[in-house]
Amino acid sequence: MKPTGLLFFPAFDWAISPTHPEREERLLYTRDQIFEEGIMDLPQIREYQPRLASASDIARIHFCVPSIERLATEAHLVSAGGALVIGDAFMKGEIKNGFAIIRPPGHHAMTVAHGNRGFCNINNEAIMIEYLRRKYGLHRIAIVDTDVHHGDGTQEIFYHDPDVLFISFHQDGRTLYPGSGFVEELGWPPAWGTTINIPLAPYTTDEGILYAVDSLILPLLEEFQPELVINSAGQDNHYSDPLANMNFSAGGYAELNRRIAPHIAVLEGGYSVETALPYINLALIMAMAGIDSSNLREPDYERRAFRESPDNMERLKRIATLQLENFRRREEMQADLKKKHGDFFSTYRRIYYDTDNISENQEIRLRLCDRCCSYRVIDSAAAHAMGESYRVLCFSISLYSCPDCQQEAREAYRHSLERFLGHYDFIYLQDRAADEYLCFDCSGFEERGIGGRMPGEGED
Questions:
Q1: Which sequence spans correspond to the domains of the chain?
Q2: 278-282, 373-377, 431-435: range with lowest mean pLDDT
Q3: Span 4-332: which CATH code?
Q4: Residue among 107, 108, 114, 150 flagged as catalytic
């Protein structure tokens, strides 16, 4: 039997502030408990050490404005690199599954990243997924986001991609940051029905969440047949978490993990530092390693105090029925929407960076193609609290886009350098198909490669 891979990175040198909920103690109490329990000495566990993610790894997912160096500290690169290490270990067959217990977190970071929002600068899961797709040729990936906050960044990154099934259960966005994740959010035309949100009423218990797993999440995974299942493992649904209002327990998390059986789990949120996180992380590790966790429970947990209301169970049943129907008619709806919108789908959005106080406006154009999920063009303008502002134009070519769409996008990028230099600070090309990432600095009239490769250079 292969072991479960574990990787710790507490990021001693990174915190938003010394007293902020997102700080190193989130992982230190967990590490102490795991070592005290002797978990790391068991043959079912293999420990791994992180490495730095490269600039190309980041540029494969993000347009970092004004640069990767400005946005991603060394701690962010090590956190993302830790996810890559666990991903490699699984794909090489060294482990049966793996858990990257890392910080800073990432699931609120979107394609265009101007700063920190929701404690996130870069998106660890998305960086890992695109790295694994590039390196190992994977196509169909499923992400199950179990953080109490809607994983809006991960959703946005894959919102156009029918080969990525994104499932998120979270406290209802009408009651909690970031105010999104409703059942109507199903994906853009090429990928309609491959985003499935499960907004939960405050104080939902183990019973309600595990019902959603059995009646909706597991059937979705069974029908989608992904090559890889990723758990975006937020732990702030716990009843003691100070930033939310849910009633999930450590035992519930263990059972959730056992049922979903992710290949890779990557830590996200969870801010009950002393009273919950050590128990939840231990529960997840035991579930992934196949160790009996039935006796693991928090000292103050009293099961009889956490009973699901009949009204909420009826609500969950309605959501499960609706979302299964949406998923099962996705191909029909994708075809209808492509026909309706023609060659391009356009939309507009406003994004607020709560941590860094940045206001961003985006206009998005998505090329619609019958053969692939093609490319996106994002026009982004962001104003910072201290007066700094940027406007950027971003071209993103999907990894598995067809040759015609690749060529069209590259020509559009080159054409933009001739037409729009006075309108933008930077113009970017994210060419996943060629694994080439370019940034044109409009003030200095200079094009540079991102990740160590200059324009025109081939791969080693």
A1: 4-332, 343-449
A2: 278-282
A3: 3.40.800.20
A4: 108
